[in-house]
DNA sequence: GTAGCATCAATAATCGATTATTGCTTCGAT
DNA sequence: ATCGAAGCAATAATCGATTATTGATGCTAC
């Protein structure tokens, strides 16, 4: 399906920061660039709006969302509310296969360089993906599709907001927090794991919104 | 915008149960019925898929979702995980205006008949809406759009699943639980409110999935 | 009688063109 | 010079028609 390809391409471009926040996404231009018809780009854009990756201004077309600092903090708070609870369920229910996948995901994350000189000031695409997979894997033994879909949605919004947050903090990748998270999860220590996760989320949002922008290990 | 109207119409029809689960949603038929072009119905259907109110079968078109009993229980579990936490925040942060809106929403819910003979075996549209507004109002003082959007999404999925659940239980409308919920919320008793909410959600899913189908006050 | 292939009708996906709306620009009046 | 209204260019929204896929039907070969 053509619209699927266009959707994937656009999603990647927006998440990668190829467009600035607020920038118009003109169906005609996109159609010409990708060599497809208006209907196809239109469908992709409508889907993007549904996922929160584009805004729709009635009769004024589509645009990359403008994320306020406030919105970013709301998303972070939502994650602090939901993810620890899901993590507890996951730790409760996970089997050996899950443990193995957590180890694998953490290993990949720890060994993937977060920043490389030539890719600008942001972390690499490979690290972003490894980061997502690690957090997703931690939760996915909860076995509840509705909760995991909620996680996916919040993660996407979170990454988009983070991409454009005022204060980028290249020194912070939370490696130590990830290590403690893996450790607590595999030890089935739900209290510690939940606490570390809350701290991780709190520090991340703090590093990206505070004027001080404190670095962390 | 035309697609908006078509979307609203379709959403209503699906939630109302005008189509059976699994039934195909043919763009051509819908376009003819509503007197619009294919592009318009197509856009509405794509949006519906995004909201989980329609399934998309690649190259086989759109259809009303088939909800398994398992899926329904997952959604209910997700609500039990998320909503009590949001309710606590709402109780913590709500002001007098919120208290007034909770009272108003509960009053409307309590005074709206849940069932009328002529509207078939299901509760009325007016009651369903009053029910949604009451639960939504309880939570909305949390002030977090991301969390409220999550609630909206889960509520929609929940109502759709409930509509087609195997065991409908016309005697159960949870009036007493709603009363206790209102009482605890206004008394700012977060622990009690959260406990009542969990019980309310648990009883609802139990009444609709158990073969026994026990009625409750 | 059955298995497998070819044909066909239904419809999903896509396209190019048309209509309607918006914000900007320009022109005129005060 | 500035404010306001009319015209204009850009583009969003919509449409009708075309192409591609699918699942079903019926035919043929064994």
The biggest sheet of chain A amounts to: 3 strands, antiparallel
CATH-defined topology of the largest domain in chain A: Four Helix Bundle (Hemerythrin (Met), subunit A)
Overall average pLDDT of chain A: 90
How many helices of chain A in DSSP terms? 9
Distance between the termini of chain A: 45 Å
Architecture of the largest domain in chain A, CATH level 2? Up-down Bundle
Please tell me the total number of domains of chain A: 2
Helix content of chain A: 55-70%
Main interface by residue count: A-B, 29 and 29 residues
CATH superfamily of the largest domain in chain A: GntR ligand-binding domain-like
Order of helices and strands of chain A: HEHHEEHHHHHH
Flag low-confidence runs of chain A: 211-217
Widest sheet, order of strands of chain A: 1-3-2
Class based on secondary structure composition and strand pairing of chain A: mainly alpha
Strand content of chain A: under 5%
Number of extended strands of chain A? 3
Write up this protein.
Chains A, B: Pfam families: FCD, GntR. Chains A, B: Keywords: DNA-binding, Transcription, Transcription regulation. Chains A, B: This is GntR family transcriptional regulator. Chains A, B: Residues 1-67 form the HTH gntR-type domain. Chain A has helices at 2-16, 27-34, 38-50, 69-93, 96-111, 125-140, 145-163, 175-186, 190-209; strands at 24-25, 55-57, 61-63. Chain A has 217 residues and is mainly alpha-helical. Chain A has two domains: 2-63, Orthogonal Bundle (Arc Repressor Mutant, subunit A); 69-209, GntR ligand-binding domain-like (Four Helix Bundle (Hemerythrin (Met), subunit A)). In chain A, strands 1-3-2 form a three-stranded antiparallel sheet. In chain A, a hairpin with a 3-residue loop joins strand 2 and strand 3. In chain A, helix 1 (2-16) crosses helix 3 (38-50), helix 4 packs antiparallel against helix 9 (190-209) and helix 8 (175-186) runs antiparallel to helix 9. Residues 211-217 of chain A have low confidence and may be disordered. Chain A binds chain B through residues 1, 39, 42-43, 46-47, 49-51, 58-59, 71, 74-75, 77-78, 81-82, 85-86, 89, 144-147, 150, 153-154, 157, and chain B through 1, 39, 42-43, 46-47, 49-51, 58-59, 71, 74-75, 77-78, 81-82, 85-86, 89, 144-147, 150, 153-154, 157. Chain A binds a DNA duplex (30 and 30 nucleotides) through helix 3.
């Amino acid at each position: 399906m053509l619209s699927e390809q266009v959707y994937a391409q656009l999603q990647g471009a927006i998440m990668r920061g190829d467009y600035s926040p607020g920038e118009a996404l003109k169906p005609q231009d996109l159609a010409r660039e990708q060599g497809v018809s208006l209907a196809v780009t239109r469908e992709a854009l409508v889907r993007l709006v549904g996922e929160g990756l584009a805004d729709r201004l009635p009769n004024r077309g589509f645009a990359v969302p403008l994320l306020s600092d406030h919105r970013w903090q709301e998303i972070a708070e939502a994650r602090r509310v939901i993810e620890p609870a899901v993590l507890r369920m996951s730790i409760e229910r996970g089997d050996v296969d899950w443990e193995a996948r957590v180890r694998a995901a953490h290993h990949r994350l720890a060994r993937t360089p977060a920043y490389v000189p030539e890719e600008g000031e942001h972390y690499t695409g490979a690290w972003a993906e490894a980061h997502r997979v690690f957090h997703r894997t931690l939760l996915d033994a909860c076995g509840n599709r509705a909760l995991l879909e909620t996680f996916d949605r919040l993660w996407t919004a979170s990454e988009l907001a983070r991409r454009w947050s005022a204060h980028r903090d290249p020194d912070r990748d939370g490696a130590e927090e990830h290590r403690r998270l893996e450790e607590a999860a595999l030890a089935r220590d739900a209290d510690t794991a939940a606490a570390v996760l809350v701290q991780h989320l709190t520090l991340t949002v703090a590093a990206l919104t505070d004027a001080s922008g404190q670095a962390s290990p």
